[in-house]
Amino acid sequence: MSESTDLRPITFERERAKFLSEISIPGFSALGLTQDHYQLHFSLKRVAGEILHFVSVSPSSRALKIGESLQLAFGLEDGQYFLNTKIENIQLNDIMVSFRQETELSCLQRRNTLRSAVPMNSGLKFALVKIGSQILPKPFALNLVDLSAGGFRADWPTLDLGEPAEGLAVGGVLTSGPKKLELFGLLKTVHRQGHEVQVGAEFQSLSTRDEQALLFICMRLRGK
Q: Of 160, 77, 175, 169, which is closest to residue 126 (Cα–Cα)?
């Protein structure tokens, strides 16, 4: 699937109403991303007409401002939904965002994981800390080739890490700015070309919150 069709705009009133009805449960969680890529966790408080009321449930030193743009991610049964909105008002812990007709809503189908190339200047760092049952003496920085919400592809220096094999369990920490994700996966592919080796890993037991965080990172890599 091409990048241009990854995110499907939700424009029909019936679809928007269905989305609103599915998230209109007090306590429904959403992950928020500011324009400077700061991630925040929200819990829905109530829906009042075209305004969604949230409470921030993540400790944060990053103060939000009225009028600030915000992207919210919601995990539903048929996929991940993204709402590009702005903060209408803030009253104590009550953060109000717009859900008017012109507010951009899009959907990423469940089977799509937004595989994205990782350029050298991306700022992403993946520190490998575990191979199989072995805890490494110190974290080893892997060079990521691409990343998705389902896994990653990376160079594998055999002189430092030994020979990889399909089915090998790996664990590490992905760092993107202030955000750190502890991830575990299984090697699904091993490609050798001369002395160079690349591996493909599939993440295991991802929480919805971590999946959303990975999707935000992939969207940033694509400039969306």
A: 175
Q: Alpha-carbon distance 73 to 216, whole Å?
A: 8
Spans of the chain, pLDDT less than 50:
1-4
Question: What is the number of H-type helices and E-type strands within the chain?
Answer: 3, 16
Same domain, 90 and 41: yes
Report the number of distinct structural domains present in the chain.
Answer: 2
Same domain, 88 and 157: no
pTM (2 d.p.): 0.75
As a whole number of angstroms, the distance between CA 185 and CA 167 comes to 9
Burial 147-165 (b: 16+ CB within 10 A, else e): bbbbbbbbebeeeebeebe
**pLDDT of 94:** 87
Provide the pLDDT for residue 3.
43
pLDDT score, position 209: 84
24 and 46 housed in the same domain: yes
pLDDT at 111: 57
**Angle at alpha carbon of residue 142, lines to 138 and 146, rounded to 5°:** 155
Secondary structure (DSSP) of 65-104: -TT-EEEEEEEETTEEEEEEEEEEEEETTEEEEE--TTSE
CATH number of the domain where residue 146 is located: 2.40.10.220
Q: How far apart are CA 208 and CA 210, in angstroms?
A: 6
Q: Containing domain of residue 86, as a range?
A: 3-109
For residues 35 and 69, is the Cβ–Cβ distance under 8 A? yes
Tell me the C-alpha distance between 124 and 190, whole Å.
Answer: 22
